[in-house]
Design brief:
The structure holds 3 protein chains of 3 kinds. By secondary structure, chain A is an all-alpha fold. Chain A contains 12 helices and no strands. Helices cover about 40% and strands about 20% of the residues of chain B. Chain B is built from 11 helices and 10 strands. In chain B, the strands form 2 sheets. Chain B has a 6-stranded mixed beta sheet, sandwiched between helices. Classes of the chains: A mainly alpha, B alpha/beta, C alpha/beta.
Chain lengths: ~250, ~270, ~280
């Protein structure tokens, strides 16, 4: 939960990076993601991750990204062990593990710098159906609400003598039932109320709804996008042509 | 029985919710905590059973520091009825819902059965014994959650906004239950906005503002202090304001319409 | 004076329900007035509200009888999107009617759905936020708002659609008394400035007696009392139907019974105290 909220939940900020057009931020994240896939040696991955760190600094989210990296590294360790046991290849196992971290970080960089509004905008750019976009919007909108619900339900059940910190794994799972059922019931009730409120505010009245906000790519956005693509081309070229194979 | 000593608490978002709170709640007392939304009432209540632990200071129940034990253990002594019943009802039947806490607290099966029957009868829920708690009306759900708590016979009960969404008749019944608990020697703490509901019960009143206690005393005394109430954005009971305008003695306020009538009749030439 | 809402012997039974939620209910509401609907839980208030804004019969199945007309048009024969522009509905829990991530986008939600042009959305959203004093919150996320602020955001979203009739379902239940009072004052102001009609379901009547023009009490799905707040609250029947008669009104009734004050006009606490003092009691 903490990992999710720290690594993927947007918090508003006025950094240069945050102010970029969401489509440009998506482009940068995708390019970094692809670079992480293209890298064939550890040191190349390290270069890619250094670039990501640079982006994180510009967006003033280095601390959060760092935490995400650290937590992802735990999963990564598992990947490394499994991979090594199967392939018996130290270098490739290492590569997979580090690559996983890089991929998560590139994705997380997009989600923590793009506001939900911007995510919606991006979805609209890709011409996703209105219902899908709206379902996504409400899902994200209600994450904090559901988290609060969860805490309140846990408080209520602990107050009825439910021990949540004691016992083995199975007992703990069983003790989650009194929390999960009210959570689901509340979500169902909530979705019913949401549906009524949507109807009352003319949802679906016209096939092409208008919008309060209009995103327009500024000159800066276009310049950054071009620079990003150029840098990507350069990186890809270097990886395969210029840089020497170095097994670290 | 419940004691706060210099308790401060800051929420993760940086809001100071409790600011050096000292409060002693005696056994058998009926206490109302009032104040506007965000004044710290709910945070205060969540400290009693250790749902929140003080960042500074000490909270104790019967001398036991809340940091040294679990919420489940503390709840055996202090039952908390939360505002929203939908945050706790989950069993397949009303009967099982009532038995849940009793089983958690380790009561013997025959005691559980007896207590469940007592609760269902006392709170007029017998006809729903086998039904799902989810089909109950809002008022019935609130009654059920209170019955669930009283079934394990805690020494103190905390009611968080018990009158929200309740109509006049339901409120009257609730006031009756609170009086019954008081008469049985239970400690009752009520967090509520509903001044008109609290006033006739004449509880001790604690007024909170920005995480601090700004007034504390018998209702008859605290509710006269218009300025203190105004600054905490708490309304004055209608009959108190009326009595003040009429020049009634502050030490003998009008508890209900009948009292006011007696006073007015008494002044007739 | 024209009627904005006409309900003619309306009745509704939800599919699979054993009996009618509302039966034989008639009511006329004058444009620009404030009507308070009271009654115990489960008396059919919510059903009636849904029938006024069209959720019944458009979203709920069941047996529908009689007719409900808003601004002269039958609700049954209109579509939800038309009704949404005439009838605004502020639901009990503001949390569940705020959809977007920022206040201004949520206020715009209804207008976007209606396909209102971009520039007009902007001006209407700004106007609605200004009206409710939430312009400074425009960029806030819903979870950064207090309950009172959420209520205002939801109401701004409703008002931006410029409805003639606004339904408020227990609007003060989550608010502290002061915030609740501010909301009631806001409603009175909106009625005056915009001429909007309000239909309010509320338990806390002491807040509303001064602004309401009419009060209707329901019980068991039927209308049992109908009149000015004074007629209803000063009458003998209200308490029996579970209506929370304010303490001062109870007192005035007693004193009127004793012949000490007049019983034909409802007074505030201050008025009552003054009357008694002047009478020399």
């Amino acid at each position: 939960m903490m990992w999710l909220s720290g690594g993927f939940l947007f918090r508003s900020s006025s950094s240069y990076y945050h102010r970029l057009d969401p489509r440009v931020k998506l482009l940068i994240s995708i390019l970094m993601f692809v670079c992480a896939l293209l890298a064939r040696y550890i040191y190349e991955l390290v270069l890619v991750m250094a670039f990501m760190a640079g982006v994180a600094v510009t967006a003033k989210v280095l601390a959060r990204v760092g935490r995400t990296m650290f937590l992802t590294a735990t999963f990564s360790a598992v990947i490394f062990v499994v991979n090594f046991l199967v392939t018996r290849n130290l270098v490739s196992s290492e590569l997979y593990a580090v690559r996983f971290v890089a991929i998560v970080v590139s994705t997380s960089l997009f989600f923590i710098t793009a506001s939900p509004d911007e995510l919606e905008q991006v979805m609209k750019t890709f011409r996703m159906p209105r219902d899908v976009v709206f379902a996504f919007v409400t899902a994200v909108r209600f994450i904090p609400v559901m988290m609060l619900d969860t805490f309140q339900i846990m408080d209520a059940q602990k107050s009825r003598g439910l021990e949540m910190q004691k016992g083995n794994v199975f007992l703990r799972l069983k003790n989650m039932i009194p929390v999960l059922i009210p959570l689901v019931v509340n979500a169902v009730v909530r979705s019913g109320e949401l549906a009524e409120a949507m109807e009352s505010r003319a949802y679906g009245a016209v096939p092409k709804p208008t919008s309060l906000v209009r995103y327009k790519a500024r000159g800066v956005d276009k310049a950054v996008a071009v620079a990003a693509v150029a840098l990507f081309a350069l990186t890809a070229y270097s990886f395969y042509v210029v840089l020497p194979p170095l097994f670290l | 029985m419940i004691e706060f000593e210099g308790v401060s608490f800051t929420h993760p978002n940086g809001v100071l919710a409790l600011d050096n709170v000292d409060l002693r709640i005696e056994k058998g007392e009926t206490l109302a905590i009032v104040g506007e939304n965000g004044a710290g009432k709910t945070t205060l209540v969540r400290h009693v059973t250790g749902l929140l632990k003080p960042a500074k200071g000490r909270v104790s129940v019967d001398g036991v520091d809340t940091r040294t034990t679990t919420t489940a253990t503390l709840s055996r002594k202090v039952g908390v009825a939360f505002q929203n019943p939908d945050h706790q009802l989950f069993s397949e039947s009303v009967e099982a819902e009532m038995a849940f806490a009793l089983k958690n607290f380790g009561f013997e099966p025959d005691v559980v059965a007896k207590r469940v029957s007592w609760g269902l009868q006392t709170f007029g829920l017998e006809e729903y014994r086998g039904s799902s708690p989810l089909i109950l009306s809002g008022g019935e759900k609130k009654r059920l959650t209170l019955a669930c708590i009283l079934a394990w016979d805690p020494d103190a009960v905390i009611l968080d906004e018990p009158t929200v969404g309740q109509d006049a008749l339901q409120k009257e019944r609730l006031a009756g239950t609170v009086r019954m608990l008081g008469a049985a020697g239970k400690t009752v703490v009520i967090v509520s906005h509903d001044i008109e509901f609290l006033w006739p019960m004449q509880p001790r009143v604690v007024v909170m503002k920005s995480g601090r206690i700004v007034a504390d005393g018998p209702a008859a005394e605290v509710m006269q202090r218009r300025e203190a109430l105004d600054s905490a954005r708490v309304a004055q009971p209608q009959l108190v304001a009326f009595g003040q305008e009429l020049g009634a003695k502050p030490e003998r306020p009008f508890v209900d319409a009948l009292g006011a009538r007696r006073f007015i009749e008494g002044r007739r030439p | 004076m024209t009627s904005i809402l006409e309900i003619e012997s309306f009745g509704f039974r939800y599919a699979n329900a054993p009996r009618n939620a509302v039966a034989d209910f008639s009511l006329e509401v004058t444009e620009g007035s404030i009507l308070v609907l009271a009654g115990p839980s489960g008396c059919g208030k919510s059903t009636l509200l849904r029938a006024v804004n069209g959720l019944i019969p458009h979203m709920y199945n069941g047996d529908y009888s009689g007719d409900v007309k808003v601004a002269g048009r039958s609700v049954k024969g209109s579509e939800m999107r038309e009704l949404a522009q005439t009838v605004g509905f502020l639901f009990q829990n503001p949390e569940n009617q705020i959809f977007m991530f920022s206040v201004e986008r949520d206020v715009a939600f209804g207008l976007e759905n209606l396909g209102v042009p971009h520039d007009e959305i902007r001006s209407r959203v700004d106007e609605a936020m200004e009206l409710l004093g939430i312009a400074s919150l425009a960029k806030r996320a819903p979870h950064e708002l207090s309950d009172g602020q959420k209520q205002r955001v939801a109401l701004a979203g409703v008002l931006a659609m410029r409805p003639k009739l606004v339904i408020l379902d227990e609007p003060t239940s989550l608010l502290d008394p002061r915030t609740a009072k501010e909301l009631v004052e806001l409603v009175a102001r909106l009625r005056k400035e915009l001429g909007t009609t309000f239909l309010i379901v509320e338990h806390r009547l002491e807040l509303l007696v001064e602004v309401a023009d009419k009060m209707v009490v329901m019980s068991g799905g039927r209308k049992v009392l109908d009149g000015s707040p004074q007629e209803v609250l000063m009458g003998d029947l209200a308490e029996g139907y579970g209506v929370a008669v304010p303490a001062v009104t109870k007192l005035q009734k007693m004193l009127a019974g004793d012949g000490l004050v007049r019983g034909d006009r409802m007074m505030t606490g201050t008025e009552l105290a003054k009357t008694i003092s002047q009478a020399g009691h």
